[in-house]
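Example with several molecule types.
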Amino acid sequence: GAGVSQSPRYKVTKRGQDVALRCDPISGHVSLYWYRQALGQGPEFLTYFNYEAQQDKSGLPNDRFSAERPEGSISTLTIQRTEQRDSAMYRCASSLGGTDYEQYFGPGTRLTVT
Amino acid sequence: ILNVEQSPQSLHVQEGDSTNFTCSFPSSNFYALHWYRWETAKSPEALFVMTLNGDEKKKGRISATLNTKEGYSYLYIKGSQPEDSATYLCASPQGGSEKLVFGKGTKLTVNP
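Resulting structure tokens for the full complex:
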């Protein structure tokens, strides 16, 4: 079946612009996670949802970052007033839910802020 | 804050060698330990999720063990092949949340 998909795959934006990154999880997966991954580093947690409820947003760096999953399926991560330090790979993952299930990662969105 | 440590940071082996590396995590308040394989320019791929002390899981030539009492997990690769070259990441959920805290990974290079 289809895996996790993300769009766009690459995004170049100017400093100060807002960007919206989209994640389409595996059908039927309860949980959806957002991570940021710097070059050569492991994923760093940002936030996650169970269905449409945002359960933990402790990893969001500041209030310019927000995420939603209004219908419990597709999710959007929005970064307002982007800064150069926001440049990174943003990965989405989904799972059946709970700590015991593996997370399936999407291909990521490479964000470059110029 | 949960601290997940991996060692070594990198490893070079010859094709056919067997190898292993370590993931350390706090033994208190343990929920699960995840192993992922990550090739640069691709997405991390789940290998194992382990929850029980003494658990051992195997997938082909790769296996993993778990010791929750002392807070470590070993990943073993038997007869390494060049296609095993990747970064191996372990991660643990923090405090019962589904938030995974990742280690920095062990980068394995298998020379033909």
